[in-house]
Each structure stands twice: as C-alpha cells, then as structure tokens.
Amino acid sequence: AMSEAYFKKNQLKPEVRNKYRRVIKRLIAQVGDIPLEHLNADRLREFRDAQPDDVKASSLQSLFTPVRGMFKHAIGEGKIYDNPMPSVVLKPEKRSTQMTKWMPFPPEEVRRIFAAMDEVWGAPLRGMSDERRRAIHMVCRVQAFTAMRRKEVLSLLPEYVTDNSLIVIGSKTEGSDRSIPLHPEIADFPAFFHAGGFDTFLSQKKDRA
After folding, report:
1. Which pLDDT does position 102 carry in this prediction?
2. How many Å apart are CA 208 and CA 149, to the nearest integer?
3. What distance lies between CA 90 and its chain's CA centroid?
4. 0.85 exceeded by the pTM?
5. Do the Cβ atoms of 93 and 84 come closer than 8 Å?
6. The pLDDT value given to residue 187
7. Torsion angle, CA of 83/84/89/90, rounded to 10 degrees?
8. According to the 3-state scheme, what is the secondary structure of 155-167?
9. β-bridge mates for residue 168, sequence order
10. What share of the chain is helix, strand, coil (3-state, %, to 5)?
11. Type and span of the H or E element at 137
12. Would you tell me how many other CB atoms lie within 10 Å of the CB of residue 67?
C-alpha cells in the first residue's frame, strides 16, 4: 500500500510503476510482506545480499531506487520516523567517470553512422514498404541530431513539432521535458511529420519504439 501511495504521489508513469512493482514483489518474496516500519536495515541487507555476486553496481543502485523512494515518501507523510537505507551499503561504482558518462562520437565515427543509415534506409528494401523505410530513416536522423529517445520521437504530438523546435513532453525520466531547437540537418522533419510520415507506425500492435 505504501509503495502504491509513493507511485501515485510522484505521478510515476505506468511503465516505471510496473518496473518498481516488480522490485517490491522481489523484496516481499525475500523478506516477507511485513509493515514498512519492520523493514529494517538487516532485512534490506538480506535483500541486497540475495542478489547475484556479479550484479553491476549501477543495477544494484537501480534496484533500490523504489525502496529509497518509498521510505522517503513514508517519512514525508509521517508514517514512519526512521529511514534504514543510509545504513545499507551498496556496491560502489568502480568504473571511471569517463566510462560511465555518455561520450560524443568522433567525427569519423559519425560519418560512418550516417553512411550506414543512408545505405540501409536510403534506398528501397525488399519486404518493407517505402513509407515504413522512410519513416525509420527519419526517426534515426532525428535521434542523431536531437539525442532524443526512439519513444520520444515516436510520441511527438503535432502541436509540439514546429519549424523552430521539437518539444518533448512526458519523457521516461522525471523532469526531462524539454524544448529542442530544430537542427538545420533535419529541417525537413516538420513537413514530413505533419504530412503523416509516421502514420505507417499506427498499425504496429506492439510498442512502436
């Protein structure tokens, strides 16, 4: 119940809620369905230690994200008065900043990527309609010049696609709604989009991204 209250209070997106529910379900399977005030540091360490020895530090941190959030919410609501999470030491990240942060592609690599895109999607493909091929090519181009996620590109609303910018609303990451200036290299995107260039994806039954 406390986890659901945390999800609702923070207006988490359905896919994030489902991911966090799976974590809470694993936690309950390990320590039992107990009141939150009984979920102490020892039980949290038990859950931590039950994870595979080779689990990545980033994965372990991610696993405990909904647990942290649930405790923070409960304290904020006055349901509990002690947060055991600071007493639970998680595996530290040993990779350097250079290895964990996103690094830009060098110019030569960028040229190779665009050449590959043009080779694959720039000419008719057997077994694929031209509409679908052109749409996929455009998605790749927009991603390249905006750093948007595929789902963000495919979820763009008509009122947020202009000749000057693309506005991303309802992104996966909380607080990442943003306005992106339209790069000259994709100046043809708004016209393509408003002409129904992505309509070919409407028949996609599964997640279009």
Report:
1. 64
2. 12
3. 22
4. no
5. no
6. 95
7. -70
8. CCCHHHECCCEEE
9. 178
10. 55, 5, 40
11. helix 130-146
12. 22
Give the residue among 140, 152, 132 at the shortest CA–CA distance from 189: 140
Bridge partner list, 165: 181
User: What is the amino acid identity at position 140?
Assistant: C
Q: How far is CA 134 from CA 3, 76, 90, 186, in A?
A: 43, 50, 46, 13
Mean local confidence (pLDDT), 155-168: 92
How does residue 161 score in pLDDT terms, banded at 50, 70 and 90? very high
User: Given the structure tokens 């749409």, which residue do they identify?
Assistant: 135
Of the CA atoms within 13 Å of residue 68, those in its CB half-sphere come to: 12
CA-to-CA separations, 168 to 144, 151, 157, in angstroms, rounded: 15, 10, 9
Q: pLDDT for 176-191, tens place per residue?
A: 788 999 999 999 999 9
By the 10 Å C-beta count (0-12 exposed, 13-18 middle, 19+ buried), 132 is classed as middle
CA atoms within 13 A on the CB side of 54: 0
